[in-house]
Write a structure and sequence with these properties.
3 helices; 129 residues
């Protein structure tokens, strides 16, 4: 099993999200058993969604962990906010979002939100490999 962890901060958050995507692609490219291009794109999309939401709604910093299992890739983001992500109707007019969580739920085998005893939460998705 291969793992990767990246700490991400809001300093130039667009750059931070891009760095998380690049780190994810590098991790996936380093796997001994390659991942299909379409599956890699899905992992990177979920990484982007998780990191963006953690920076925007989770207190400004997060830790991103990727774990390669034999038949899946696990994407996990830890942030400092105890507030669980919520499902909401996507906003088609004002551009305030609402699309990410349903998208991740459709792409992932499973998703979970776990509150941490020390504070904050962990959001995870298990994706096909």
């Amino acid at each position: 099993m291969n793992t990767m962890s990246v700490d991400v901060a809001t300093v130039r958050s667009a750059t931070s999200v891009a760095r998380a995507r690049e780190s994810a692609r590098a991790f996936l490219g380093s796997l001994l058993r390659p991942i299909a291009a379409e599956d890699a794109d899905t992992v990177v999309l979920v990484v982007s969604e998780f990191v963006t939401n953690a920076l925007r709604h989770g207190g400004g910093t997060c830790t991103l962990d990727l774990t390669a299992h034999p038949d899946s890739i696990e994407v996990t983001a830890h942030d400092h906010s105890p507030q669980a992500p919520r499902m909401r109707t996507p906003d088609l007019n004002d551009g305030t979002g609402g699309f990410g969580r349903p998208m991740v739920n459709r792409l992932a085998r499973t998703t979970a939100v776990t509150r941490q005893a020390a504070g904050g939460k962990t959001v995870s998705a298990l994706l096909a490999r």
